[in-house]
Amino acid sequence: MNHLLVAPVLLPAVVAPILLLALRFRLNAARAVSLLSAAALLGIAVALAAQAATGRIQIYRLGDWPPPFGIVLVHDRLSALMLVLVALLALLVLWHAVATGLDRKGWHFHPLFQFQLLGLNGAFLTGDLFNLFVFFEVLLIASYGLMLHGQGPARLKAGVQYVVVNLVGSTLFLIALGLLYGATGTLNMADMARRVAAAPTGDGALIGAGAALLVVVFALKAALLPLHLWLPVTYASTSAPAAALFAILTKVGVYALVRSATLIFPDGVLPSPLTPWTLPAALLTAGVGFVGMLASHHLRELAAYAVLGSTGTLLAAAALIQPEPLSAALYYLPHSTLSTAAMFLLADLVARRRPGHGDALAAGPDFAGAGVLGILFFLAAVAVAGLPPLSGFVGKLLILDALRVHAGWPFIWGTILVTTLVGVLALARAGTVLFWNRRPGEAVAEPEPLGHVTGPLLGLLLALAALTLLAGPAVDYARATAAQLAQPTAYIRAVLGPEP
Predict the structure, then answer these.
(1) Separation CA 199–CA 74 (nearest Å)
(2) In contact, 444 and 354? CB cutoff 8 Å
(3) What DSSP character marks residue 183?
(4) What is the number of helices (H) and of strands (E) in the chain?
(5) Cα radius of gyration (the chain)
(6) The pairing of beta strand 72-75 with beta strand 365-367
(7) Which residues pair with 360 in a beta bridge?
(8) How far apart are CA 14 and CA 10, in angstroms?
(9) What would the pLDDT profile of 298-357 be if each residue is shown by its tens digit?
(10) Do residues 433 and 350 lie in contact, with contact meaning Cβ atoms separated by under 8 Å?
């Protein structure tokens, strides 16, 4: 077995207790260890991605128990993509939190951050539905703490709502697991795929009920309409670095939908009674997200609705579970995550330079660094809206082209293009208010040199530029990933061996 495969789970699982028990009151040492851990995770993720690019599916049996009896980690092209995305985003967000001093507002920021990475990496690597539930709970518990970091009544109110919604989702997840285990006798995803395919007709209703509940849970995690109401208030209320990291949380739901649809239920993402509603729900989610951007009163709220809109666009392609739409969605997925994270970090930099006004989309006094931040806002806005020349434009073109296989493609095209236009108007309004419509008067003092805190934001924008310049290899990787997902037999054989 390749022991590097367990490192994305093991490293944060070891570092988090060290930070909590030994470095709790030693901030500088905790910062150094946390940053080194995040950098190491990025290096490990890139090394594993290079191995996955060969098309080989690797497994790691914890305790060397043979599946389906033991815990197994599975690494393929899709897992590799998600691990690299998590590690890159985490390193840049952590850098921003340290540079702006957010981690000073509580003793547990760094341990919670590492536990969050543990949950994310575990969710993308596990080959077992029950352990997917466990890693969901780990990342959710850590996200509760990160969401409340820095305190405040609005943050506490949003945090309570966030906890309640996710407790309901966790309960439904457990019920779904019970139904599926009762029908198939296993929770190993590869083993369940075999048993679902060979299930007797009488078990179809039980399996369908379990699958339907799984879809509801994953749709809740992805904030698919009408299960989206928790996202805008949560992301707009928490600190900007936490919200930037949370940009990947909706993609956990998308990942789980795609993984279960292509592996366990390969005939479609949803059981037949719900299948017709997947694509319309995704398009409505995109519409609500981009219209919400236009109605936002704060830049952080606008970024939260941008997460919702981009996730809807992503799911519009992923819902078809066909190679071409799925490959377009896989190219657009990292773009949507990095671009919305960049907008959250930018909102934080703006708010720090407008005391009394924060990131409110209202005219305020001139502030130091407005010119530089205006340029960075323009680049981030181009990325979020999906305009040329950045990767969002390439991703949306791929999605539009791939969705021509659907009979209702004119309506789908119209929805995506109109929502893009609404997003452009919202971002143009925000930029005009923040950087042009400033009140005359003395400029506000700069809290810190701008060059000390713009590095993470520049890193995200450079990552988007790299995704644009390397669009050819990135699209090829996305297509190879979609082709691998379309052949679940290879995954099943890698985990269970040849069928007897």
Answers:
(1) 24
(2) yes
(3) H
(4) 20, 4
(5) 22
(6) unpaired
(7) 298
(8) 6
(9) 999 999 999 999 999 999 999 888 889 999 999 999 999 999 999 999 999 999 888 777
(10) no
